[in-house]
Structures are given as C-alpha cells and as structure tokens.
Automatic annotation (TrEMBL):
Positions of the HTH lysR-type domain: 1-58
Entry annotated with the keyword Ribosomal protein: no
InterPro entries: HTH-type_LysR_regulators, LysR_HTH_N, LysR_subst-bd, WH-like_DNA-bd_sf, WH_DNA-bd_sf
Alphabetically ordered keywords of this record: DNA-binding, Transcription, Transcription regulation
Record GO cellular component, one term: cytosol
Name listed for the protein in its UniProt record: Transcriptional regulator
Pfam families: HTH_1 (PF00126), LysR_substrate (PF03466)
Regions annotated as coiled coil: none
Keyword Metal-binding attached: no
Recorded GO MF terms: DNA binding; DNA-binding transcription factor activity
Entry's family note: Belongs to the LysR transcriptional regulatory family.
Superkingdom of this protein's organism: Bacteria
Length: 307
C-alpha cells in the first residue's frame, strides 16, 4: 500500500473537497482523484461519497481514517528518528533555547564550543520555554536552555528524574517604565503600586506572559494589558512612546557583551519586590545516551560554571 496515497486520503477527508485537498498537497485534482480511486480499488470499497462540490466519508472511510492517520504518523516518526540518528552520527549537535541568547551569554558558550571543536556542526532551535521540553521529549534537540519559574524548577529538579537540570543563571522580575514616570527612580516597587498602570507583556501563551500575569493576580489585580509582543525592542518602544510600563526579567535588558553601547535610555528599570525569579537551566535527558558532541558541550558548560 502506497503511504503517500494514505496521506492524500487523510487530507481529502479533512477538507472534503478535491480542489482544497489538491491545493494543500501541491498536486492537480486529476492526479489526486486517480490516487484515491487506486486506494479504493486496493481496499475493495468506496471511501468517499462524491458530489459535484464536496465529498463525504462513507462508513468504510470513517472506519479506515484513524488507521490511515496512525500509519502516516508512525511513518513520519520513524523517518524522523532515523534522520536524528544520522545527524548525531554525523556530528550534529542540536540545541534548543529561548529568545535573548546574547543577554544570557548562550551565544558566547556556543562560540567557545565551536572554537574548541571546529569540526562540530551546531543546529539551534529558538522557541518559547513552554515548548522547549517537548524538543527533548521528541528528541529533536539533545540539549535545551530552559527557563522555569522558581517553584516549577524546584519541583521538577526533584521529581522529573528523566531530565537532568544544570542550574545556569537566575534572573528576577523588574518594571520597565519611562524616565518621566513618578515612580521611575524608586529603589523597588510592589506590583500593588502598579495596579492602575497600562501594561506591555511578552506575547500571550509565552512563559513570560504566565509569570507576569500570575504575579499581578497574586497581587490581587488583573493588569490592563494594552500591548503584547515577542519582540523586546517593540516593548521598549511602547514604554518610551506610549507611556506604558512593562514586566520583564532583568537579563532581558542587559546589553550583549561586545554589542553597541547605549547611553541615556529613555526608560528606567526598577526591581519588583518581593523578588519574583526564574531559573535558567541546561537540560538533557539522562535516559538517552548523549552524542559525543553533546557530552563535550555539557562538559564545557560545567567547566565554565563550576571551575
């Protein structure tokens, strides 16, 4: 049985339209129709009821659909597993990380490793921390730099025995506000003091959004969020020009080493009290054998952190 025909069957079952299905599959309708007919002939049943505009699954098609999905899923997973193993054997080191690598000196670590091991190839995937551990689970990354709030880190450090967490850095929540704000030059601020402000958050669905939202709710108010973005520079612009304030981690606002120096910023950074912190960890699965390059990278990290 041709698994490509199964994929086409699944797409047609989802769209219920030959034109939409062929467009999604980047093929013409005539070819798609022939493939579906060939699959039906092989099975000896009609999978679809055809009309001039749409198709509907027959009882046979509805019965067959979950099996077709399962076959195509496991084919993809099997091929992906082989490709990952090939990459490891060929010296590819796969690392997942959250945005703002320079501020956390992650790019420096990578550069140091590349200098020490010039034959190694590194592939970096950047994503939000809410997704990064999935990269370890599906083995698309051997190592991830993960951010967790303090309570989650402490819980997972003890209970998540399949993943080794090497503490890397800590950071804390701060308020970013325009220089002309009456509270801008405070030594610290409670979130309750900010309950009537207009807030900028990192995008909804991100870990930083969750941390900031939980912090406000624990201070007994729902923040008035007027802007969200995954770009720190856009948030800085809103704070500067729209008289908003932002909740970020202090490391977000550090200038990268060897980066351009800036003076006279139109905003001020004030620590939040009581301290709300997050833990950055270097994570890897201890139930899987790490590739040689992954082992060397972990050693480099440990040497930098503990020597």
């Amino acid at each position: 049985m041709n698994t490509e025909y199964l994929k086409e069957f699944v797409v047609l079952a989802e769209t219920k339209n030959f034109w939409e299905a062929s467009d999604r599959l980047y093929m013409n309708q005539s070819t798609l129709s022939k493939h579906i007919k060939s699959l039906e002939n092989e099975l000896g049943v009609d999978l679809f009821l055809r009309t001039t505009r749409r198709v509907e699954l027959t009882n046979y098609g509805q019965t067959f659909l979950p099996y077709a999905k399962s076959i195509t899923h496991f084919e993809f997973e099997g091929i992906s597993a082989i490709r990952r193993l090939q990459n490891i054997e060929n010296g590819l080191l796969t690392i997942g990380t959250f945005p703002s690598m320079p501020q956390y000196h992650i790019t420096q670590l990578l550069s140091q490793f590349q200098t020490s091991h010039p034959d190694a190839t590194i592939r970096i995937t950047e994503d939000d921390p809410v997704n990064l551990l999935h990269y370890l689970e599906n083995e698309s990354c051997e190592i991830v730099f993960q951010r967790e709030d303090k309570a989650t880190f402490e819980k997972n450090f003890l209970s998540d025995t399949r993943i080794t967490r090497i503490p890397y850095q800590k950071d804390r929540l701060v308020v970013l506000m325009p220089n002309h704000h009456p509270l801008a030059h405070s030594d610290s601020l409670t979130l309750q003091q900010l309950k009537n402000e207009r807030f900028c958050f990192i995008k909804e669905g991100s870990l930083m959004y969750q941390i900031a939202m939980n912090a406000c709710q624990n201070a007994n108010f729902v923040p008035n969020i007027v802007f969200t973005s995954h770009r720190i520079d856009s948030i800085l612009d809103m704070v500067t020009n729209q008289n908003c304030i932002a909740l970020l981690m202090d490391a977000h606002l550090k200038l990268p080493e060897n980066g351009p120096r800036q003076t006279g910023e139109p905003w001020h950074i004030v620590p939040v009290t009581p301290i709300i912190s997050s833990q950055i960890s270097i994570c890897y699965r201890n139930d899987k054998l790490l590739s040689k390059n992954a082992q060397l990278f972990i050693k480099l990290c440990n040497d930098n952190l503990f020597s």
